[in-house]
Amino acid sequence: MSGVAIKNHSGFIWSVADLLRGVYKQSEYGRVILPLTVLRRLDCVLEPTKAEVLETMADLPETLRNREPLLQQVAGQPFVNMSRHTFATLLGDPDNVAGNLRNYIAGFSESARDILDKFNLDVQIDRLDDHNLLYLVVSKFAEIDLSPAAVSNLEMGYLYEELIRKFSELSNETAGEHFTPREVIRLMVNLLFADDDRLLTRPGVVKTLLDPACGTGGMLSVAEEYLRELNPQAQLRVFGQEVNAETYATCRADMLIKGADADNIRFGNSFDDDQHQGQRFDYLLANPPFGVEWKMVADTIRDEHAAQGFAGRFGAGLPRINDGSFLFLQHMISKMKRPDEGGARLAIVFNGSPLFTGAAGSGESEIRRWIIESDMLEAIVALPDQLFYNTGISTYFWVVTNRKAPHRRGKVQLIDARESFTKMRKSLGQKRKEISAEQIDDIPRLYGAFDEGPRVKVFPNESFGFLRITVERPLRLRWEITEDTLAAIESDKKVAKLDVLKRDSLLKALRNSRGSHYTTEKSAKAAVQEALASAGADTPALVKAVTDALAVRDPEAPVITDRAGNPKPDPDLRDNENVPLPEMSVAYEPDPTARLETIEYRTAIDNYLETEVHPYVPDAWHDPDKTKIGYEIPLTRHFYTYTPPRPLHEIDAEIRKLEHEIQVLLTEVTE
User: Fold this and answer.
1) Rg (Cα) of the chain, in Å, rounded?
2) Are 245 and 361 in contact (CB under 8 A)?
3) Strand partners, 377
4) What percent of the chain is predicted at pLDDT more than 90?
5) In this predicted structure, which of 16-25, 162-171, 438-447 has the lowest mean pLDDT?
6) How far is C-alpha 602 from the chain's CA centre?
7) pLDDT digits (tens, 9 = 90+) for 129-145
8) 422 - beta bridge partners?
């Protein structure tokens, strides 16, 4: 079935909305249309064997309790309907459609009933029946043929997604939270399975794949299709989890109809209700929602992080509360088969934030550090913008593995595929670009070649790391009594708490010494103590507050030192610098403190200060206690190409031309 045919089917099904108008809001159409589409699909799948199933049921002894396995064999499906009804027979009794429809739904085996329960269809049956719409709606669905002969499983997946996209737009929801464009999935799957042809073409190979945010199951379906093309004898066992009830039900129905193990698709939030706990997989795929906060599950995640560390899922760190992208990635890494089990690979879609958000030592930076220093980050692919239905922002594939090929070890590959797109003739939501079949083949070819060029860069792991050092400069002060310093004293909180007479007496004493200058803190403090004593307010706290208020920064003044004779740092002149990590192979350590003490790191900092800092501020030094290791991936910077500005004479000529055109237009208006 072509894309046009899918849209025709979608349009026909969506015409039910004409019947619902007035009773349902636009945002509610999907509550009726999507579950009945799934129900009609189940009905069409079972229709060829329905009569035989009923005959077999009639012949079975009434004492037989567990009939389902036998009837499923007759139906040739992993589910069965044991009621006497089909969509066609429901229409034979117009006065009792609601009761018969409920009887029909109750007749499904448990695996299918779980799907229909998630749609909460019973509520909609009552609502439609109360408004005399149920017969009309059911008869509309009975007209469309959704049998596998008319609509393949893959095409049915497209149809589900097209319907979801439509009602998401009407609801002002984000369809991209539910599914990913199929050509994007295809590219993602190609990259995930890249270099594994030899592994996947072995006779009888069985592999497992998890999508912890599976939506309608598009990624799982495309991965199955890819492996089937590569090796018809191979088996890919797919697993998924989804938090949205309707899309979970749609995905589970799709898997059930395909004959896959629908029990592998689980309902719930992957963060606080991990339905695949203790399981590990060969491959993992995900397109988690961009920038979604995790406040609702924060307590569970923080508790796991604190109590279990790396024995749990979030040992490397926690990102900021308003973006759970890195939580998904850590969750997926925890599900990877270990190297001694053969290892695993994963691909995940991110926006640009995980590349650089978070300063050195922050949760995001620590997660990047863990992934890169553990040598798990294999490649990042920059995709075109306007590729997804719900957002026009730029997106990126991260490919992560614990079984890198020998020539990739210690390195990260960056691929610039931002120009690998074709313009769509008609946009779908914010999706205005798509990746062609040729480009889907070209990008994995660049990945596999591992050769540097205009669109491919390869860097050692440490290239993305840096030492965030704190550069201090000495504090230089003089003390003076001026109108400005007197105003500072008057507004000081401690001085303001004095009674009026004492405050006025203090300020009068200081004004009498207006114009005085002191080169040392000791001499300034003596003058302050004298003024405070005359006011009857000589306390250590006030002496310090007033003396500090008289201080003025002066680059020519002597350096202020502590009791040990070391210069005190000036907070106003404090700065931070990023020092590139030295070129040395490092293994990940949860606590990087020991590494900061190594000769290589100290030498890198000293060399940086000598070449980049001391030529401009010779009295500067760094505070080793404040040094942190950070990681970021400035992908776009690595692919930046300088474009020189146009010559001035061209710009001048263009301006003169525009001025002339404006003058002509003004003349026409005045005439």
Assistant:
1) 35
2) no
3) 400
4) 58
5) 162-171
6) 36
7) 999 999 999 999 999 99
8) 434
Contact (CB, 8 A) for 386 and 375 = no
424's tokens = 């769509």
Mean pLDDT is lowest, of 14-18, 519-523, 657-661, for 14-18
Angle among Cα 245, 249, 253 to the nearest 5 degrees reads: 175
- pLDDT tens-digit readout, 217-245: 889 988 988 888 888 888 899 999 999 88
Are residues 205 and 199 in contact, defined by beta-carbon separation less than 8 angstroms? yes
Residue 614, both tokens: 């001391």
| DSSP states along 172-220 | T--GGGT---HHHHHHHHHHHTTT-HHHHTSTT-EEEEEETT-TTSHHH
In 362-418, alpha helices (H)? 363-373
Query: Distance (Å, rounded) from C-alpha 66 to C-alpha 71?
Result: 10
Which residues contact residue 362 at a Cβ distance below 8 angstroms, ignoring those fewer than 6 apart?
317, 320
How many whole angstroms separate alpha carbon 388 and alpha carbon 179? Answer: 9
Q: Which two structure tokens, joined as six digits, stand for 86? A: 């089909």
Locus of tokens 């005439």: 671
Of how many residues is the chain composed?
Answer: 671
Contact between residue 339 and residue 277 where contact means Cβ atoms under 8 Å apart: no
Give the separation between CA 109 and CA 609, rounded to whole angstroms.
72
pLDDT higher than 80, residue 3:
no
Q: How far is CA 576 from CA 473, 489, 609, in A?
A: 12, 32, 12
How wide is the angle at C-alpha 57 spanned by C-alphas 55 and 58, nearest 5°? 65
Tokens representing residue 625 in the block: 């206690």
pLDDT in tens, 170-217: 655 554 454 688 899 999 999 999 888 777 888 888 999 999 999 888
Closest by CA position to 528, among listed 112, 570, 516: 516
Sorted by sequence, the CB contacts under 8 Å of residue 506 that are 6+ apart come out as: 489, 495, 498, 531, 532, 534, 535, 537, 546
Q: Are 206 and 237 in contact (CB under 8 A)?
A: yes
Of the candidates 395, 373, 280, the one whose C-alpha atom is nearest the C-alpha of residue 333 is: 280
Helices (H), 309-411: 325-334, 353-356, 363-373
First to last CA, the chain: 62
